[in-house]
Amino acid sequence: MNPAGSSSADVWVGLPRPNPAARLRLFCFPYAGGSASAYSAWWRELPASVELCTIKLPGREARLREPPFQRLTPLVGALSAALGPWLTKPFALYGHSLGALVAFELARALRRRGAPLPRHLLVSGRRAPHLPMGEAFHALPDPEFVAWIRRMGGTPDEVLREPELMELFLPVLRADVAVNEAEPFVAEAPLDCPITAFGGVVDERASPAELEAWRELTRGSFRVEMFPGGHFFLRSAQGPLLRSISAVLDDVVRDLPA
């Protein structure tokens, strides 16, 4: 199901359950080391008026043989070009951690291109991008980098203990973390679309105050919602999170022109 009738866009976008009658598309961007499949079951909990579109990044799953991006600007440039055929319907963007940064920068890139803009930006598990990042992790030696991954809690122990899996996984994760950390923030005018920020109450990577700072990046409405859990609350509190996302998207659809 490719809206443009061209195979190129399908490289980037997955449709776990095509929904041609949907009035709104939700594009979901993975966290560092994550993949499109992290969101593939979300369609079951989303409103019937929403079509779930999962973003497939190089270096994982079907694109395993492609080198991952190591910098934010070229990744966002490639995304903004590839997603053009998919922006024929109103859409919203959701991203967790690294995905939140990519979704935000994509919205700004689309604005610079004069392309359609998101009706809502949903970000989770990441401090506002204009705040100082603090310690950088992408350049740590492997033992320290792996120890940091373990502390973050998002990678199964069976992966961390398996050398062959780590040989595949570590370069992708390090590249993703570099995308998240390596480029300085460039100030632009705030977005016009509303932003909703989600956080975990014990997430050391995104405190309530750091989530609240997203307010400065939009002229639209803004709110923060907190959930039990740490950095990967999108797993431990998936049900409540998806109910909140669905409520936001219901409001977006309600406001669309008839």
UniProtKB/TrEMBL annotation:
Organism: Sorangium cellulosum
InterPro entries: AB_hydrolase_fold, TEII, Thioesterase
Sequence similarity: Belongs to the thioesterase family.
Pfam family, one: Thioesterase
Thioesterase domain sequence ranges: 25-247
UniProt protein name: Thioesterase
GO biological process: lipid biosynthetic process
